Amino acid sequence: MVQTEKKGNEVLFVVDSKFCLILACLLVFGNTAISLKKRTSIMNKALFLLLITVIIIPFGCKKSNTDPIASFTVSNKNPTIGEFVTFTNTSENAHHIQWTFPDGTTASSNSVSYTFNFNGIFNVRLDAYDKNSTYSDFATEDISVCTPGNVVFYTDSGSYKSPITIQLNNAFVGTLSNPFNGIPNCGSPGAVTAEICPGTYTYYAVSAENKVWQSMVKITANGCVAIKLN
């Protein structure tokens, strides 16, 4: 911060070194008070501003390199429900820190393990502080939590011209080339299995002769749903 004081015919600019402002940072060899005589001519003022811009600011102003810079690492950004995730502080110049988790709990240690109890995308925040807590920085990370389920597609009819191309939630998941005898398990060879987070999704399938199947399927965590295309 810059303050001015009058002393006779002189004007004193007192500069707080923490607030080194552009065109006001007049530190010279460590002094924090610089005496300036009043300028009476436009030319003198112009030369004085040029002196500040070209010489004093580049060499007298230094950005603080002791302010905290918040950062952290995550052991797994895509955990399943109940899986422990470790968050590790990597902040610079931090005297103390605080973690804030989605349920409102906080912690102050450098390394914290946390579990998520629901599917979804959750935000974790780290605040890093200086010694007096007068300056802080923060970093955040989105964690996508999912305990997936499965859906398996099959056909037991040879009357449709192969291949049958299958999409789930507008994404290609595979093709069926041959009929399957019985009801397959998720992951069975000859069927098409897709793994996805719990929810209700649209599937779309089309055969080589343009026979179309389209409907909805509900996926549950750790579940397996069989869809027969006949």
Overall description:
This protein has 230 residues and is mainly beta. It has 3 domains: 59 residues, no CATH class; 74 residues, Immunoglobulins (Immunoglobulin-like, Sandwich); 80 residues, Carboxypeptidase-like, regulatory domain (Immunoglobulin-like), CATH 2.60.40. The strands form 5 sheets. It has a 4-stranded antiparallel beta sheet with strand order 7-6-9-10, with no helix packed on it. β12 and β13 form a beta hairpin. The protein is rod-shaped, with a radius of gyration of 33 Å. It starts with a strand and ends with a strand. The relative contact order is 0.12. The N terminus is likely disordered.
Task: Briefly say what this structure is.
This protein is mainly β.
